[in-house]
Amino acid sequence: MYQSLSAVHSTVSSLKACQADLATGMDIVTSVALDLIEDQDGEENSGIGKMEALMLECAKLDREIECFVDTVQQATAEVTAQQQEALFTISSRVKENFTEKIAQLSDADLQTHQKIVAFKESINRSHIQASHESRNIEELDEDLAVTQTQVNFTCPLTQEDMVNPVKNKKCNHHYDEKPIRILIETRRNQNKKCRCPVVGCGNKDVKESDLVPDRTLKRKSKST
Question: Are 213 and 221 in contact, with CB atoms under 8 Å apart?
Fold first, then answer.
């Protein structure tokens, strides 16, 4: 009897390990969805809907595993307290009780699953952030369109005259050194790439190694 119950406990442990892997997979799906939103600048993406559907399927599987594990643990506890003959009916009792519990579950309840709630909250926050960033960039573009000349001494980040202008070797845009380095560091801490703050620039990955001092521009700014 105890040898048979040991096999049951081993199976339950394996199922719990599957749940842990499933939770990790759901975290990865959430991370990929956030990357999609960032790449699309907050625009609606059909891929997000597909990922949400995948998250719901994972949540449903996680719930069924949890329900099955609870049923098995309850049945084995009863067998331990009864005669050995009860062990021979454990399979049928687990199947019957599990079927009853599953029938009582609703897909609507999946919306309260911890990972689903976290997924939706993260997606909403990312959409809001992307929308704010897009609005700020549009406003910056309007301001620059009015004041921009062939050589602009205004930093696109601070909207103030540059103190230590640096040039981006990739896109040839200029920024004040301190604010661009702060922005790069901030985005790095968020595990995200730093987009060039100049509106219309296609450079989505500004690195500190791309920045070089522009002494010529610095001399011109001092002479004006």
Answer: no
